[in-house]
Automatic annotation (TrEMBL):
Name this protein carries in UniProt: Imidazole glycerol phosphate synthase subunit HisH
EC number: 4.3.2.10, 3.5.1.2
Pathway(s): Amino-acid biosynthesis; L-histidine biosynthesis; L-histidine from 5-phospho-alpha-D-ribose 1-diphosphate: step 5/9
Quaternary structure note: Heterodimer of HisH and HisF.
GO cellular component: cytoplasm
Pfam families: GATase
Sequence ranges assigned to domain Glutamine amidotransferase in this UniProt record: 7-203
Organism per entry: Pontixanthobacter luteolus
Biological process according to GO: L-histidine biosynthetic process
Stored NCBIfam families: IMP_synth_hisH
Keywords: Amino-acid biosynthesis, Cytoplasm, Glutamine amidotransferase, Histidine biosynthesis, Hydrolase, Lyase
Catalytic activity: L-glutamine + H2O = L-glutamate + NH4(+); 5-[(5-phospho-1-deoxy-D-ribulos-1-ylimino)methylamino]-1-(5-phospho-beta-D-ribosyl)imidazole-4-carboxamide + L-glutamine = D-erythro-1-(imidazol-4-yl)glycerol 3-phosphate + 5-amino-1-(5-phospho-beta-D-ribosyl)imidazole-4-carboxamide + L-glutamate + H(+)
Amino acid sequence: MAEAIALIDYGAGNLHSVENALKAVGAKVAVTADPDVVRAADRIVLPGVGSFKACAEGLKSIDGLVEAMTERVEIGGAPFLGICVGMQLLATRGLEHGETKGLNWIAGAVERIEKTDPAIKVPHMGWNDVALTTHVPSHDLLEEGEAYFLHSYHFAASDPHHIAAMTDHGGGLVAAVARDTIVGVQFHPEKSQAYGLALLERFLDWRP
């Protein structure tokens, strides 16, 4: 029997493309904002595009949803995947359009990408390498390769041991964070063709 994945619906722009990608690799997906469905899910995926502030406010505006996610992941140990802004929301705070509190599941701040080279463009957009670090035991889920990125802000993790992968865009940027049963990726698996679909397929079988 296929495990149930709760794909969190809080108005994120990439919701349906993530849903289609998950279904393409055989996932049983419930697109939901219902706290009870989230509490019963085997795995949780949090998508996200746009500003940290708007996504955080949208997520928190749904009564009981953050509490249900926290209960299922932090207490129940359900595998969790955050994508793009869904990954950034794991941070303590975001600094886009003022300071906004995140979920604080992985300590850090989401800060604007600083241009250290005039040739470097912000947003960081397009295909780029994903290079694994040695800090976290999530490499049965993550693999090195090329993925599609689109972001102007990056996750500055407080603890380097939570940095699972890096990419280079005029300097190092965090491509993935992880701890325990939680992984967040800055890139878009749903736009990363074979590399991204393989990641989502591994997530279905991931046993952290």
